[in-house]
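Homework-ish question, so no full write-ups if that breaks the rules, but can someone show me the predicted structure for this set?
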Amino acid sequence: MTVNESTRSADHTDVDRTIRSFNARRGRVRSGTAEALERLWPRWGVDVGDDFSMASLYPGRETDDLVVEIGCGMGETTLAMALAQPHRRLLAVDVHTPGLGAILRGCEDNEITNVRVVRGDAVDLLSGRIEAESLDEIRIYFPDPWPKQRHQKRRLIQPAFVRLASSRLRPGGTLHCATDWPDYARQMLEVLTAEPSLRNKFEGFAPRPSTRPTTRFESKGIAQGHPIADLIFSKTAT
Ligand SMILES: C[S@@+](CC[C@H](N)C(=O)[O-])C[C@H]1O[C@@H](n2cnc3c(N)ncnc32)[C@H](O)[C@@H]1O
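A: Not a homework solution, just the prediction itself:
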């Protein structure tokens, strides 16, 4: 079986698994974070290929809202939103370890107990570990913009991925994306609008919600004069 075939889920065969939406770079794990990673990973972290379920990640909290943040980066936003919404279970996924370590450390420092981190590709998480219609919200803040024309096929927000993401939302659940790249913003609007199981909560782009803190990547975009676009769609009843 090829890697391509082995990572496909039965009902979502069209996400092209040969295309990676992320950079292969590996950031450095600082020594304090490395120590936190080693100590806290067994409690709050999993690799996407591990054997786990939402029930095993959050024992006793099965009925709380479940939110997935895709591409959490260094996790400042993850921590701020987890603190602001302690009643919701927040699952943060990224392929890179340093940010996940920073999140675990931040959780311990701030006594945050509603965050779990997953290392790996969000496509594998959604297709292999998240049940259909089980999520209250998916957050995708500043996904890699892949600005060069020849790289744009690597952008995460593509029709097949959006179909997969939407299938994991419960009816009424929210898909919230943000970007600082105008042509990616237009692509997001087009792709999300074209997905029949989603409905735009606004006319075109959304006003920036006060609940979304400024992310690290967003700050860099703002410093370069980029406009920020939020897109907030809800899952229609099935
Ligand atoms: C441009 S950074 C933005 C990070 C953060 N959200 C922010 O706004 O500062 C995009 C992040 O998404 C992660 N990423 C990209 N594709 C991913 C995928 N398929 N699964 C998980 N993480 C992914 C990258 O590793 C990177 O950390």
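Now go work out the reasoning yourself. Hint: Residues 21-22, 70-73, 93-96, 121-123, 141-144, 156, 215-218 surround S-adenosylmethionine (CB under 6 Å).
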